[in-house]
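Q: How would the structure tokens look for this protein?
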Amino acid sequence: MGTPYEKDVVAWANEQAALLRAGKLSAIDIEHIAEEIEDVGKSQLRELGSRISVLLAHLLKWQYQPERRSKSWSSTIRTQRKDANYLLGEAPSLRRRFDESKWLDVVWSKARTLAESETGIDFDDFPEICPWPIGCVLEEGFLPE
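A: Here is the predicted structure in token form.
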């Protein structure tokens, strides 16, 4: 086989794609291709979680520090919301995670940690559970008051 997966994953991926397109199925690295396909889904889920955590952190900042509200915060909220909704449009199956309390707890904890580091407000002063339904969080124009 050409480039080993462990040595140069990009070169390996290009070679595997060429083999697939050429119909040389007996020459492909099935195990690593399967891993990479699974990793695509994991990567999308990580990105969604990251975007929602940043969005939630800024919504916390918006609510807890009204005197410091800025165009920068508004812009971050809009951008993260649009990017999260775009990801959900591209991969609607990711919405299932909104029903998983463990996943939401991790996302919310990251949001609280980020808000704590950016505001100086203690982590425990933020609600233990997200006070807003995720549907509202993703809705254009939603801001806590």
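Helices lie at 9-21, 30-64, 71-90, 101-119, 134-137.

The first helix runs from residue 9 to 21.

Upvote if useful.
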